[in-house]
Amino acid sequence: MKFVLDTHTHTIASGHAYSTIHDYIEVAKKKGLELVAFTDHGPAMPGGPNIFHIGNQRVIPREIDGVEILRGVEANIIDYDGRIDISENYLKKLDLVLASLHDVCIEPGTREENTRAFIKAMDNEYIDIIAHPGNPKFPINIDDFVLNAREKNKIIEINNSTFTNPGRSGSRDNCIMIARKAKEYGAFVVAGSDAHISFDVGNFQKSIEVFKLVEMPEELIMNTSKQKLKGYLKAKGKELQERTSISIR
Ligand SMILES: [Zn+2]
Ligand SMILES: [Zn+2]
Question: Dihedral, CA atoms, 139, 142, 144, 148, nearest 10 degrees?
């Protein structure tokens, strides 16, 4: 099984990341990745980008040096009704929308509140991926969460950085439980590097270990084919158009 794409990366615009699009493309190409999504944080993240940074991504070529690019965001869920920090007129221009809970943007709630926040966010048609739901700071009802993701056609991320983030210890057990349920219910999953520096793009080792452990079927894993991910997005009405391709080296 080959992992050819990364749906979760941060550039310097996120405020606490260290690389540019240039840097990412260079490393992605060396690692043989076929597609990278840029998903800087939404504006509610302290030090995060202005909304104009999210909205201006049409200037980013669709393909650089043979690496395809998706224009994205990691939106912050800002209340337990699942509201996010990006409005519809921005969301509809993006290729890929991640939504996640960060404790600097929302106080961790009870298990019921956190679960509700995710499930309500899934009602937002523009959201594609729920990022790092395995974070133990935000305990969830895993059964409800995965069942809703399956019913609402959302992709569940098994976040690679979560396993090594000291603030998220205990993630591995949660991720294994989430992955087991995703397999049981037939929900889509994706490994995200959540890279905050270019060298981490395409790093999925820990996520892949979880997929192997639960024997996740390849058809549920979104990283193994560009066509599978893009087909999913197009079926939701995302156009992924204005094809521009450049080469810089
Ligand atoms: Zn995040
Ligand atoms: Zn992230």
Answer: 100
Please tell me whether the overall predicted TM-score, pTM, comes out greater than 0.90 for this model.
yes
**CB within 8 Å of 7: residues ≥ 6 apart:** 37, 39, 70, 72, 96, 98, 129, 157, 190, 192, 222, 223, 229
Cα of 102 from ligand 2 centre, angstroms? 9
Q: Do the Cβ atoms of 158 and 188 come closer than 8 Å?
A: no
Q: How far apart are the two ends of the chain, measured CA to CA in Å?
A: 29
pLDDT category of residue 169 using cuts at 50, 70 and 90: confident
Q: How far is the CA of 194 from the centre of ligand 2 (A)?
A: 5
**Topology adopted by domain 5-237:** TIM Barrel (3.20.20)
The pLDDT tens digits for 87-126 are 999 999 999 999 999 999 999 999 999 999 999 999 999 9
Q: Delimit the domains of the chain by residue range.
A: 5-237
Neighbours of ion ligand 2 (CB under 5 A): 74, 194
pLDDT digits (tens, 9 = 90+) for 126-154: 999 999 999 999 999 999 999 999 999 99
Closest C-alpha among 58, 91, 35 to residue 228: 35
Q: Nearest ligand, CA of residue 8? A: 2
Compute the distance from residue 213 Cα to the ligand 2 centre, in Å. Answer: 24
